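Justification of computing resources. Each target in the renewal requires a structure prediction run like the one illustrated here; the chain below, 504 residues long, is used simply to show the kind of job we budget for.
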Amino acid sequence: MPDIATSPLEPAPLLNELSALSISNSFAALPPAFYTNLMPTSLTAPYLIDVSTSAAQLIGLDAAAFSSEDYVAAFTGNRVLPGSQPLAAVYSGHQFGQWAGQLGDGRAILLGDVATINSTGRIELQLKGAGATPYSRMGDGRAVLRSSIREYLCSEAMFALGIPTSRALCVTGSNQYVMRETPETTAVVTRMAPSFVRFGSFEHWFYNGQQDALKTLADYVITTFYPELEDAENRYHAFLAEVTRRTAHLMAQWQAVGFMHGVMNTDNMSILGLTLDYGPFGFMEAYDPRHICNHSDNQGRYAYNMQPQIGHWNCYALGQALLPLIGSVEETQDALKDYQAEYAKKLDELLHAKLGLQTYQTDDDKLFDAMFGLMQKDHVDFTLFFRQLGDFQLNDTATNNAVRDLFIDRASFDAWANMYRARLQTENSQDTQRRLAMHATNPKYVLRNYLAQVAIEKAQNKDYSEVHKLLRILEKPFDEQPEHAQYAALPPDWANGLEVSCSS
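Resulting structure tokens:
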């Protein structure tokens, strides 16, 4: 299975015609109870908003062709490509900790899977917002422009940050309206992932008492995406252990970059350890470990500091669903036991990299804890702090004023900086080399909510230039891009009033 977050793109011939895109659908080979075959519902006069060049190249398509009528129709759902078997999958899940019963693809339609360039694997194409399905639960199956732009931009931004994620090929729009809190125009995002199977896909069959279907799904996922586990002594135990490890690592990667998902329900958790289903997400700005990015999350279940714990909880929910296959509670618990150690190990690795530390010492956790304590006390901007810390100099203290000035209590920062300086000196750290390494680890540009909001408001007035520009900036998050420096600045005061919720 290709890692779509990190696989390098090598030159390959691009397809000039969509008809040359060979589509199959391995998920459709499962029994009919796993999905409903249906066609997308057309949108009126669709048009292209933007396309990700690198995502298009991943499956051999030329981004320049996406504005054509054929491409827009295909990636809006107005025309079905040859070989496609459109379907909506059924699944269930726990939402905000409560069993929600049957859910399913309420506004997502899987077109099928296509080969990646140079035959490195296959990627599923899924239309989000292409109309109602049997799982829409009284909804219209549509996505609105604002949420579609947010998902499109963040999917590709996370890819550029090196974090495992689903991707977004393109986003199309229409002047057709749907009713939310107010009337809003519709849009469709074409999402890409090796698989969109979720933890909730397994919960569905477990809670419905259908062990044969549960085994069918598990065998399909293992054979297709985890073939190295097929010959394990207990393949289902090995499967749960590997998903647990990937989830622990993903949580550490989220924490290290300040990303908050907002809705970590089990139906939003990828069985491949990918970031999936972008809704009320956010990137940490003024550091507060208890920050809740989702305005709908009244209890703070999915606050930033809760994400690692919820990741663990969700793995236990998956373990419960797989218990009949694994065979015993003890074996299931054994498959889950390494979550906390894997999370701690990965986060420790990432924090050392973020601070430019090449060695590990027993008291490093004290340095990290003191740092985060100061950041919380003075509400220091998360992304700016780590980026500017990369410019820290051991001897030229004047150069350190940029990071120092982020703090109100500068005396406390100076005390911490002395600890940091002494720690760097223990490994003979060199300013120039450390700066290069830290700037390759700590992004300068992330998708702040206000940046997305500016792009959305322009798009609502038929100006899509900011969507295009913002994506191109976020595709190179570690580069200086001095001409775009304002996109890395502290958010304006009006951004404090922005709220995102489950409707986002």
